[in-house]
Design a protein that fits this description.
The structure is a single chain. The chain is an alpha+beta fold. It folds into two domains: 52 residues, Roll (Structural Genomics Hypothetical 15.5 Kd Protein In mrcA-pckA Intergenic Region, Chain A); 197 residues, 2-Layer Sandwich (Pseudouridine synthase). Helices cover 25% and strands 26% of the residues. The chain has seven helices and 17 strands. Helix 1 packs across helix 2. The longest helix has 15 residues. It starts with a strand and ends in a 5-residue tail after the last helix. It is an enzyme of class 5 (isomerase). Pfam families: PseudoU_synth_2, S4. Keywords: Isomerase, RNA-binding.
Length: 257
């Protein structure tokens, strides 16, 4: 294969998304033929490329994607400097496997992991707008009302810029919230801004893929139909969507209204 930009090659090899690969290079964690790599550098099949000293197989591995029920207490990272349990501890040893996006340590639910850098880019880049749906249990005397949650849909100001929910509805002891983006602890911060701090938070859907009946720590490999449903929810038959939503409400509590 002819020379290719290093960050693209790392993504194609399943190391990380292109954007994350650029950050690895900027951080000085990538070497080419024993020399610290530079952003925009070209590489070919004969080059010795290493990340954190580990040799990278530049040919693309067979891609695989998993849905994991991330338990509370696990961090969403491939490497943790503090030695905390990370999501890869719960997964098979697959070269290049990495989490897609993040789910904070105190939250739980659906997390995708893959060694497909192109899929990671598709699922994490803001321009694609894949929905993420959450069930929150709030603390305090009363759960948020629909009038309060409508504020989230209209949009609120946060310290890292305006934030807006695609939809939000009250539920038993909390709320269902759907976002089109995924900033750090966003659902928690949005509900706390309304005066409703979150005690428990479960992500039950990403795109058109639902958590289903997975339990904490369990995972399953996604097949072609799952990936189609994940990436193109509008093509999913309505009966499948309605069934997944009913299962979610049975498991996490009926929505009011």
């Amino acid at each position: 294969m002819s020379a290719e930009r290093l960050h693209k090659r790392l993504a194609r090899a399943g190391i990380a998304s292109r954007r994350a690969a650029e950050e690895l290079i900027r951080a000085g964690r990538v070497t080419v033929n024993g020399q610290t790599a530079g952003l925009g550098q070209g590489v070919n099949d004969t080059d010795d490329v290493r990340v954190d000293g580990r040799l990278v197989e530049l040919t693309r591995p067979e891609t695989v994607t998993y849905a994991l029920y991330k338990p509370v207490g696990f961090v969403t990272t491939a490497h943790d400097e503090y030695g905390r349990r990370n999501v890869l501890d719960a997964m098979p040893d697959v070269p290049g496997l990495h989490p897609v996006g993040r789910l904070d340590k105190d939250s739980e639910g659906l997390l995708l992991l893959t060694n497909d850098g192109d899929l990671t880019l598709t699922l994490t880049h803001p321009r694609y707008g894949h929905e993420k749906a959450y069930r929150a249990w709030t603390e305090g005397r009363e759960p948020p009302t629909q009038a309060e949650l409508d504020v989230l849909v209209r949009g609120i100001a946060m310290d890292d810029g305006p934030a807006q929910a695609l939809s939000a509805a009250p539920a038993e002891d909390g709320a269902y919230v759907v976002l089109g983006e995924g900033r750090n602890r966003q659902v928690r911060r949005m509900l706390e801004a309304l005066g409703h701090p979150v005690g428990r938070l479960v992500r039950y859907r990403v795109g058109g893929l639902w958590l289903g009946d997975l339990n904490p720590g369990e995972y399953r490999e996604l097949g072609p139909r799952d990936l189609e449903q994940l990436l193109h929810p509008h093509k999913t038959p309505r009966a499948v969507w309605d069934g997944a939503w009913e299962q979610t409400q049975d498991r996490w509590g009926t929505q009011y209204g």
